[in-house]
Amino acid sequence: MERSSASMWRKLNSRYNLVGTECENCKTLYFPSRIVCKNCGRQTKMRDKTFKGTGEVYSFTKIHVPAEAFREDAPYTVAVIRLDEGPMVEGHIVESDKEVKIGTKVRQVFRKMLVEEEEGLIHYHFKFEPA
Amino acid sequence: MAEIIGYGVHVPHYRIKVEEIARVWSESAEGIKKGLNIREKSVPSHDEDAATIAVEAARRAVRHSGIDPKEIGAIYVGSESHPYAVKPTATIVSQAISAGHKLTAADLEFACKAGTAGMQMLMGMADSKMIKYGMTIGSDTSQGRPGDALEYTASAGGAAFIIGNDRKESIATILDTVSFTSDTPDFWRREGADFPSHGGRFTGEPAYFRHVISATKMLFEKTGLAPKDFKYAVFHQPNGKFPLVAAKQLGLSDEQMRDGLLTPIIGNTYSGASLLGLAAVLDKAVPGDKILVTSFGSGAGSDSFAIEATDGIEAKRARSDKVLDIVDNGKIYIDYAMYLKNRKGIRK
Ligand SMILES: [Zn+2]
User: Fold this and answer.
1) Rounded to 10 degrees, what is the CA torsion of B27, B29, B31, B33?
2) pLDDT tier for residue A1 given thresholds of 50, 70 and 90
3) Catalytic annotation, residues of B
4) What is the pTM of this model?
């Protein structure tokens, strides 16, 4: 995760909320956002689409040896979630002492993702919890 | 009149029992449970803070109210554990609930009563039509120094209330409010200090009881309402005992206090405490029920409110996540070592 203020600021909408896009031409949904629809090319008519934040676990893995930035979080679970509207999204599962399985229903929550060193920024992000 | 349009709360999943803390310090769990009237307290996860708790409560409040968050004209977040010293929690909430940019926002601090101070500010703004809707939040992840009596109660949680002025959207009307404020050194934390300091027994009589009782008596006088007129009463609850003692002195029964007293099962959520109690009572209130709420913040002051549930409360009830469900669902008990790890008391 990049640490500059500007890039954090540009992506807030898709980090705090599941805001992706919908092609109005063919109704295909995308998360993360796309500018050009895979089906429609030049006929693409994209608009923002906010997903409800509910879905189920499609696949998951428990991380015991994390990247340095997530040292204090380990062990934690990262999952691929199939949103109820269709798109797949990767996200952390909170409170990893709760076991998840493939098919576990989850809902979006708002948590800290990364805390920079003492004087830096706190990065907030959506994560998921068993519903 | 200022109207409550919706509300939402959040309480973390982790719990630690009084027995577990008492075990570490070789104290009598039974004595503490009885003395403080508390069984367990909530503990934030390592990735929760006052901002994430505020956001979860705010999102539930927006859902419950049924309003478009873009119509919120003011957001105030009261906390004594704002994650940044400079960078308002209220801005994070506004972005996370997609409230847009046409709004005023600020963080408030008045120990445990900043959330009700925000409610009073919004009453004036909604009444004067300066805003259509405003949101006030009380949210904290408070800490007690290890081994201090506060360690048994200092917990985490928050509540958000949406205030407006349209009776048709109301679930409850705020009939009136008064405050009692004084310069009292009962509890404080200097900039940069990890833990608060307090005046021991001095936190009782001249602080909590004087302010809660004075403000509540002033409210009775101003409104002409008497203790028996209220179906429910909610006081700030630093432990499970103080509010019941204050109630007795004011002529209120344990029965009136019961549904709004959450500290025995979640601890003292500081800025969240009286608002969480109000939310728990609104979960049950029926049209016409009158509710007394008196907050307390060290330093010190109390805000007292007379609130009456309106006909609209039933229609929105199905959309609300009930406080007791949020408290009960998904609880995870942890031991003192995990508690320290979550509170960053030990690190890798
Ligand atoms: Zn398309």
Assistant:
1) 140
2) very low
3) 80, 112, 236
4) 0.96
